[in-house]
Input
Amino acid sequence: KVGVGERKGRRVVRTHLAAILKDPEHRYLGLAAKRFPSPFSEFMPGANLFPALKRLAPNMTPVRAGPQEPLKIPGGIRLGTFVCYDAIRASSPRRLARLGSDMLVFVTSDQWSGDPLESEQHLAASVVRAIENRQFLLRAGASGISAVIDPAGRVARRLPLDRPGVIVEEVTRMDVRTFYAATGGLLYPLAALLML
Output
């Protein structure tokens, strides 16, 4: 996960948090940016209407949503790659699945929390995203929990919090599109009406 600046001349006009994909020879293959910056740490809600709110977080570097399409690796496998807070929002991985990803890749750093329980909750959100989209989810946590989650939501392998290491696990591409990936929360209002 890196910060990427869009420039106009020498001036940076936008900053994105992104995952950059490179091949084994370090050649650039693509970039997937965060679609949903974290409120209060990467953007200040309401600051467009009330600029004085920016003074509440003077050291914050505003992060903008950026491009996020499945990244292709050699062999034609499409990685639906999303960053950090995007795992909390189901729409980002769902969109990547709709766009044809074969597996999901989630890049994060849980250093913001300082609480191991919050890292576990962030991992639990990853489990839900794997189930919703019926795809393997590869979770790379720079300071959080790294894991391989299968399409049924089982954590096949994991590294503990704040432990460097490598996970080796066989995964398969899933060329399946779930009803949820196609429709999202469309049925929630219907389900609520049925409960009345």
